[in-house]
Write a structure and sequence with these properties.
The complex is a heterodimer of chains A (214) and B (66). With 214 residues, chain A is α+β, with helices and mostly antiparallel strands. Chain A has helices at residues 2-50, 93-98; strands at 70-75, 84-89, 101-102, 113-118, 139-143, 147-159, 181-189, 196-209. Chain A has an eight-stranded mixed beta barrel. By secondary structure, chain B is mainly α. Chain B contains two helices and no strands. Chain B has helices at residues 2-8, 13-43. The longest helix of chain B has 31 residues, at 13-43. The chains are: A alpha+beta (214), B mainly alpha (66). Chains A and B meet through α1 and β7 of A and α2 of B.
Chain lengths: 214, 66
């Protein structure tokens, strides 16, 4: 009997330690993977941008990026000057582990319609961890091969995970003809949960061409 | 369980301690590099993608509500 109780106790302690290790893995270990991938993709993207426009790519942002590759750089001044992530093309599990992902099929940065980006909020380096702090008027800067697009936050909303209308060219009005140039960030809400989605809308306020080939 | 393992370990206490530490590290490494990466997508408590978003939709054509 005593052996049984001791065994049970040891099992509980072991389970606790394993759980603790798992939490460490989720919150810190996964971030290391993201950082590695971000470094790699960032270098790859900068090389590609520096090497000039690929043949066949027409005017601005008509570039097509293959899934899993870097598409643009996102910066949010409110999160500090060192805050930047490579936006990956695609929103599969594997894509989002590398960083925030652009929904394929939604518009590209600067285009009329909706540039929709999804990102992790607590794991995998948590690129959108502080998205809840954004206030109307805050800048979201998107750097692409051809230019810099400055979006201003217009609205923040919490919606159900099934509300895919937020990714429509005119959010909540699928099928409507877009006239605004919008950005939409989606992430999970509340933190550490997948019960709802936090959505941040923004509208293009300025765009600058890239001066150098960098 | 741990008492039994301790008794089974070879050598005196310094040796036992070293082997025990090694075993703990091996167990942790297996969990970290093999078990956790497999478990993580199964629970996926941090999910920011809108469900049911089609993989690709022609731009500007809009998207039917689900």
């Amino acid at each position: 009997m005593r052996v049984l109780i001791r065994g049970l106790g040891e099992l509980c302690i072991t389970a606790g330690l394993v759980l603790l290790l798992f939490v460490t893995y989720e919150l810190w270990g996964t971030g290391r993977y993201t950082h590695e991938q971000q470094d790699r993709l960032s270098k790859e993207m900068m090389r590609s941008w520096a090497s000039g426009r690929p043949a066949g790519a027409g005017k601005i942002t008509t570039e097509r990026v293959s899934l899993g590759k870097g598409l643009a750089m996102i910066r949010i001044p409110r999160f500090g000057s060192s805050y930047h992530y490579v936006v990956i093309e695609g929103v599969s599990l594997a894509d989002l582990r590398k960083g925030p992902g652009h929904y394929p099929g939604t518009q590209l940065p600067g285009e009329v319609g909706n540039f929709v980006v999804s990102g992790h909020r607590t794991t995998y380096s948590a690129p959108f961890n502080r998205v809840g702090e954004l206030k109307p008027g805050d800048e979201i800067d998107i750097d692409t091969r051809d230019g810099k697009y400055v979006y201003k936050v217009t609205e923040k909303q919490v919606v159900d995970p099934t509300d895919v209308q937020v990714t429509a060219p005119v959010p909540f009005h699928p099928g409507a003809r877009p006239s605004k140039r919008m950005i939409t960030l989606t992430t999970c809400h509340p933190m550490y949960s997948a019960a709802e989605r936090l959505i941040v809308f923004g509208q293009l306020s300025a765009e600058y061409p890239r001066v150098t080939g960098k | 369980m741990y008492a039994l393992i301790w008794r089974l370990l070879p050598g005196g206490w310094p040796m036992k301690t070293a082997v025990a530490a090694g075993l703990v590290l091996v167990a942790a490494a297996i969990l970290w590099y093999a078990v956790f990466p497999w478990v993580e997508p199964q629970i996926q408590f941090d999910h920011g993608v809108m469900n049911g978003t089609p993989a690709t939709t022609p731009p500007t054509s809009g998207k039917p509500a689900p």
